[in-house]
Amino acid sequence: MTMTIEAPRSSTPAKKRTNWEKWGWIYMRVSGVLLLVLVFGHLASNLLFTEGGVHAINFGFVAGKLASPFWQIWDTLLLWLALIHGANGMRTIVNDYVERPGLAKTFKVLLFLSAALLILLGTFVIYTLDPCPAGADPALVASFCTAS
């Protein structure tokens, strides 16, 4: 008894396509680990290593931190990774539970637009926040600000 394998239907090689689900899965694992480091570093620096703990957090504290390029990059990474991670998780939920294709596409477009808007606005605030606003109460601004 001999076995024969039939020839493939097409002799042209298949076009390589990006497997977005695989890359989304990998992103969720990598960003999850990075987010753990970023979130716990953020909490430790704000609550444990700050004299006064949570009671010391006010506009001056935040503005003072965001005046440092290190904390700008830290908070930008935290913002971007968290929003993309969350949006990708919500996209997965939409894929799993929304059965109507049109409604699923609408949800995913709205999800993408809201995540993009929040990323843009958050990044804008991180890099343009003025730690020493004119006319502000000196008790509320960053410690390095001079009185106006």
Which helices and strands, and how do they pair?
Blueprint: H1 20-48, H2 59-66, H3 69-97, H4 101-128
Helix pairs in contact: 1-3, 3-4
Under the CATH scheme, the architecture is Up-down Bundle
Q: What fold name goes in the CATH topology slot?
A: 3 helical TM bundles of succinate and fumarate reductases
Look at the structure and give the mean pLDDT. Answer: 89
Tell the overall outline: elongated
Q: How many structural units, i.e. domains?
A: 1
The CATH class designation is Mainly Alpha
> What is the makeup of the main sheet?
none
Short description:
Helices cover 64% and strands 0% of the residues. The protein has helices spanning 20-48, 59-66, 69-97, 101-128. It holds the Pfam family Sdh_cyt.
Structure description:
By secondary structure, this protein is an all-alpha fold. It has a single domain (24-128), classed as Fumarate reductase/succinate dehydrogenase, transmembrane subunit (3 helical TM bundles of succinate and fumarate reductases), CATH 1.20.1300.10. The chain is built from four helices and no strands. The mean pLDDT is 89. It is found in: Membrane.
Offer a few descriptive terms:
about 150 residues; single chain; mainly alpha; 3 helical TM bundles of succinate and fumarate reductases
